[in-house]
Amino acid sequence: MVNKLNPRLTEPLEAQPLDIQGFEQPRELLDAIDEDLTSLLDLAQRPVVSASQFTRDQLLQLARLAARYETQPQMITRPLTGKILISAFYEPSTRTRLSFESAWHRLGGDIMSITDPASTGIAKGESLYDIGEMLNHYGDLVVLRDSDRNAVYEMLESLRIPIINGGNGTDEHPTQAMADIYALMKWRPSSFIPGCPDAPALRIGIIGVPGVMRTVRSLLVLLGLFSDAIAEVVIISDKAQPFSEDQQEELESAGLTLRVSDDLDKELPDLDVVYINTIAWVGDDYEELGSQYSLSQSSPLKKDAIILHPLARGRELPRELDDTPYNWYFAQARGAVFMRMALLSSIMKSFT
User: Fold this and answer.
1) Each residue of 310-351: pLDDT tens digit?
2) Options 1.10.1200.10, 3.40.50.1370, 2.30.42.10, 3.40.50.80; which CATH number does 25-172+336-347 get?
3) What count of other Cβ atoms lies within 10 Å of the Cβ of residue 46?
């Protein structure tokens, strides 16, 4: 029996308007960034395993290309027709796997998807090295997610086709960080793009543990490329030492000013960007870190601040914030498809 107390079950569903945050802004990127695809040629047929592989100019050009895909879908000529993506997700994923597959489909390609290592030769003891050797004959590019931080490097040893790290244990998640940077560029182009009017340096708060959170680790690396636009990055954590060995020194040598705080509400009024994450892959399972930190409508957020979250979320980010101007996390997830389209077409040297 239909529950008539819920009108969504008895009335036709209507298409909802696109979220205001993060939709119109790609047009500003197209106008603000001069097209020069030269730097993207260096990505052709190359693996992507770390955020440290990218240059500032490459990120700007990838963002411009992503903005073109986002605002001009009718101009996409399906350049990957006949190409096959091997989507190998040996660790659970929703957004990363589906956004990669959506990106590849939008570019015209076909997909073979693996979502359970128990269905592969791994269950019989086959090595990732040998699997990589086989994949050379089956597809044109591999996206791999694995809870073992060494997995992508083991497969890379035998691959002769490009591989993209879709998240490797506690190590890195470079394409998530690219999506994060794309969201920031759309929100405030003037902070990231040369030639734009000067903007005040940003104060960014990251609620998380950089030493074990791959999303945070990769994001900090990319933020280092734009350190001139960032006044301070505040790591909000209950751990006295949230960084891994040498991590803080490397980030500071890139120009970032870092500070650690354990008081979220004290920091919020001065933060332009609040990046929150409480989930990390530790050992053989997900672990919730810093669960005492959470946001709500009563949080003392700066008036024009934005919230980013790599998702999936838990209690730290309630739905009551979804309909506020602070919500940029859905635009962040939406933009990931287009940033991954830009990266995939660059690696395959198939710009449209």
Assistant:
1) 998 888 999 999 999 999 999 999 999 999 999 999 999 987
2) 3.40.50.1370
3) 13
